Amino acid sequence: MPPLDEWDPKRGRSGRPWQRLVKRHCIPGAVCAWCNEEILFGLRPRHPLGPSLDHITALIDGGHPTAAWNLQPMHLGCNVKKENQRRRLVKARAHRVERPRTKLRPR
User: Fold this and answer.
1) Following CA atoms 61, 32, 48, 51 in sequence, which dihedral angle do they give, to the nearest 10 degrees?
2) What whole-number distance in Å separates Cα of residue 79 and Cα of residue 75?
3) Considering the entire predicted model, what is its pTM?
4) Is 39 within 8 Å of 75 (Cβ atoms)?
5) Which residues of 81-106 are buried (b: 16+ CB within 10 A; e: fewer)?
6) For residue 22, is pLDDT > 90?
7) Where are the beta strands (DSSP E) in the chain?
8) Three-state SS for 31?
């Protein structure tokens, strides 16, 4: 088994090494870094209030995938909201168009 510090892009966040990281960082009594509410355990898989790990610096922005300093516990639903918000901001910046300055004078 490869160490947790080695990132396997083929497995991503679905393999046993990632599940071990989630169990290590999302312990009972952990608080969500986004909403500051307690993370609930024993819920059905993929429940919005269930445990999830968030990358403080997104992988696409150069964050390390498994380093402890780049991981924080978060509700799964809050993690999805954070990523959606980041994607909306990136999309808005990409579509922003500079308008040319006109030589017309205001009257």
Assistant:
1) 90
2) 6
3) 0.73
4) yes
5) ebeeeeeeeeeeeeeeeeeeeeeeee
6) no
7) 51-55, 71-75
8) strand
Give the span between the Cα atoms of 18 and 29, in whole angstroms: 20
Residues 6+ apart with CB under 8 A from 94: none
pLDDT tens, position by position, 29-45: 999 999 999 999 989 88
Residues ≥6 apart with Cβ < 8 Å to 68: 25
Average pLDDT taken over every residue of the chain = 83
Tally the residues of the chain. Answer: 107
- Contact (Cβ atoms closer than 8 angstroms) between residue 18 and residue 9: no
Determine the Cα–Cα distance for residues 16 and 77; give it in Å rounded to an integer.
22
Most confident of 56-60, 74-78, 88-92: 74-78
Give dist(CA 50, CA 5) in Å, integer.
Answer: 24
Question: Residue 57 to residues 24, 43, 47, 53, 89: CA-CA distances in angstroms?
Answer: 19, 27, 24, 12, 15
